[in-house]
């Protein structure tokens, strides 16, 4: 099948691509890539600080949110320290911990509880870990951790614990960012990325927002010039195009509602740019859909072998995916 004919809804990418302003910035930056990105890095840091009402030292620009995870891990973990992470969840939390000679334990975001996230759920598993990851909206389920539950956690964990709130999908959620809590709590850090709503996944650009008390730590843990000149300039331009972000967010909200209403299979409410769908045999459904040119995510790797995750596409992509998946689900026998 011609790649142009594929409907790829497996990686939670922005189906509308990057902002035209970001594309123009990429083209403009191309002749300057022989120069280290010190100025662009500083400009982006200051712009993000202004956006969120922070001091510039509180914004840690990184190559993707993964880079920020590494920076926070370097700042927090000593050998044999542990992190607490959600299961299912983003595998890089534990990978980063182990790269830095730490380890990971999990708390379960349970299908039996409709993937509800609460402070009690986390605290029941908490045993003094140095870092606790909270993914909101959660991947692959789309559930959110309510503000009051996050505040309860911030006031309940031990002094040496950092709560890391991963808001990679935050733009799609109808809830406020936790960044405004940094003025009240010095044990909360927030991750953000330009990969999703801003459509810059291929450039690897993200950031962490940290408490003011951490201001001097960045220089000790960051990788010099890790975020490229092109990525920083594109991110700056993307921040100037609010219309493109709004279009991307509204499109995702339409798509996830259409998926939930039209798919002939159980789904869960989502605040991300994706929907989790229970299909019985996820591998069989995923493989059959791919043969028809629709690529979705088999959630067996998340410990959910009966579920697939469908990213929000354009209207045409979403409608095609629903047609194909409904036909396949009706034909594929249960696992």
Automatic annotation (TrEMBL):
<protein>
    <recommendedName>
        <fullName>Histidinol-phosphate aminotransferase</fullName>
        <ecNumber>2.6.1.9</ecNumber>
    </recommendedName>
</protein>
<dbReference type="InterPro" id="IPR005861">
    <property type="entry name" value="HisP_aminotrans"/>
</dbReference>
<keyword id="KW-0663">Pyridoxal phosphate</keyword>
<feature type="region of interest" description="Disordered">
    <location>
        <begin position="1"/>
        <end position="21"/>
    </location>
</feature>
<dbReference type="InterPro" id="IPR001917">
    <property type="entry name" value="Aminotrans_II_pyridoxalP_BS"/>
</dbReference>
<dbReference type="Pfam" id="PF00155">
    <property type="entry name" value="Aminotran_1_2"/>
</dbReference>
<dbReference type="GO" id="GO:0000105">
    <property type="term" value="P:L-histidine biosynthetic process"/>
</dbReference>
<dbReference type="InterPro" id="IPR015421">
    <property type="entry name" value="PyrdxlP-dep_Trfase_major"/>
</dbReference>
<dbReference type="InterPro" id="IPR015422">
    <property type="entry name" value="PyrdxlP-dep_Trfase_small"/>
</dbReference>
<dbReference type="InterPro" id="IPR050106">
    <property type="entry name" value="HistidinolP_aminotransfase"/>
</dbReference>
<comment type="similarity">
    <text>Belongs to the class-II pyridoxal-phosphate-dependent aminotransferase family. Histidinol-phosphate aminotransferase subfamily.</text>
</comment>
<dbReference type="InterPro" id="IPR015424">
    <property type="entry name" value="PyrdxlP-dep_Trfase"/>
</dbReference>
<comment type="pathway">
    <text>Amino-acid biosynthesis; L-histidine biosynthesis; L-histidine from 5-phospho-alpha-D-ribose 1-diphosphate: step 7/9.</text>
</comment>
<dbReference type="GO" id="GO:0030170">
    <property type="term" value="F:pyridoxal phosphate binding"/>
</dbReference>
<keyword id="KW-0368">Histidine biosynthesis</keyword>
<feature type="domain" description="Aminotransferase class I/classII large">
    <location>
        <begin position="5"/>
        <end position="325"/>
    </location>
</feature>
<dbReference type="GO" id="GO:0004400">
    <property type="term" value="F:histidinol-phosphate transaminase activity"/>
</dbReference>
<keyword id="KW-0028">Amino-acid biosynthesis</keyword>
<keyword id="KW-0808">Transferase</keyword>
<feature type="modified residue" description="N6-(pyridoxal phosphate)lysine">
    <location>
        <position position="196"/>
    </location>
</feature>
<dbReference type="InterPro" id="IPR004839">
    <property type="entry name" value="Aminotransferase_I/II_large"/>
</dbReference>
<keyword id="KW-0032">Aminotransferase</keyword>
